[in-house]
Amino acid sequence: MQTSLAEKAPFDVLALIFEICAEFSWRSPLRLGGVCRSWRSAVHRNPRLWSVVDVKSRRERHKAYFDRSGSYTLHLSVKKPDDIDEVEEVAHRVRCLTIPYFVDNMPEWGFPALTTLRCIHTDTGGPWVDMNQITTMRFPNLRHLEIVCTYPNPQCDDLPPLESLDVYPENESEWEATEAIIAACSASLVTLYIMGASHTEYQSKSPITLPKLRCLKIDTAEDIKDLPLDLRTPGLQVYKDANSNYEQLMHKDISSVTHLRLKRFEMVTFLTLSHSAQVLQLKFSFSVFLSVLEELKRNSSLCSRLECLEFHSDYLEKDEMAKAHQTLETFEWGGRVGMKPPTISDHWITEFPLHYVPERYQETMKKVVNLTEFTYAVKAYYSKYGARSNLDVPKTN
């Protein structure tokens, strides 16, 4: 009886495939292990597959994950904050924790290995987060914090030195809390993402200087006309403005920015602020697309360091897309020596620097690395055992 190609796959190839599956679904080890004996063996021989755990599952199930993951650090999702007691025995191994909020009687034990904390709403909802519970003593190595709602006037005296922060203020008190949190970690912050959901009358109490900030992304609702925070960013290099205000940038201190991504603007005045821009990525209407090309070609002193200009086609109709391609086919920069031809596509072509990206995004990039390794492994495997078309899924034993 002929053995299927999948059954003959070496452990290294199966391990790479299964690790990618486990990153997308914590249930993958259980499902993959039920396919056949060889897969079950591969699953149990790789403790890293068991390091992503949903504590909402039955106690005996997440206990099995804790045991089978060996000494690997853990990525835990705790849907119900009262279940935090379930992770006490592995608290020293938790690297990433997702939880809606912390209960008032939060245990005193700490999380020495934790680098990423995500306090976000789940299907259970819950009260606001008490910043008094996020301390250096409890989370000494915390570097990335993602937080939705906090109590007004948060106390951030012992906040760990965060390197990246995601905040989602929805009203005036939450904007005030956001300002306090940013101010508390201003000396260490490298990456900041602000998503404002609705209009606010809040005005910044005082300027906040962020000397180490390198990446800033702002995504706000249409009725927010200006960012209610006064941020000073002397070393900013990556700025992404995804707001729905057509008239102006949410953040204007962009003179040092080298990589700039904008959407939906009806004005081209931002060009006068982009002194250091090397890469411009724009998601605009057709009329603004034409205006940007005209302004940059006419005045070579605008964005004088520009090397790459990309347009995204999301806001273009089919006929406008055709016209845009025709325009670019005959377009010449004239006085901009060495400038690459502008492009338009349904995706961004140039990748922005990754070393400013917080850990939870680095985890995503790790998948890309794994996929690359997996590709090489599969190519080597196919060259030895046969063509890809011969790959069969083994029958369940």
> Helix segment count?
9
What is the N-to-C order of secondary-structure elements (H for helix, E for strand)?
HHHHEHEEEEEHEEEEEEEHEHEH
Mean pLDDT: 80
How many domains is the backbone divided into?
2
Radius of gyration: 25 Å
How much of the sequence is in beta strands? 15-25%
Secondary structure class reads: alpha/beta
Largest sheet: 13 strands, parallel
Shape: globular
The end-to-end span amounts to 15 Å
Kindly state the percentage of residues in helix. Answer: 25-40%
Order of strands in the sheet with most strands: 1-2-3-4-5-6-7-9-11-12-13-14-15
- Unreliably modeled segments: 356-397
Number of strands: 15
Q: In terms of topology, how is this protein built?
A:
Elements: H1 5-8, H2 11-24, H3 28-33, H4 37-44, E1 52-54, H5 59-68, E2 74-77, E3 94-98, E4 116-119, E5 144-147, E6 164-167, H6 172-184, E7 191-196, E8 208-209, E9 215-220, E10 231-232, E11 238-241, E12 259-263, E13 279-283, H7 286-298, E14 308-312, H8 318-330, E15 343-345, H9 359-385
Helix pairs in contact: 2-9
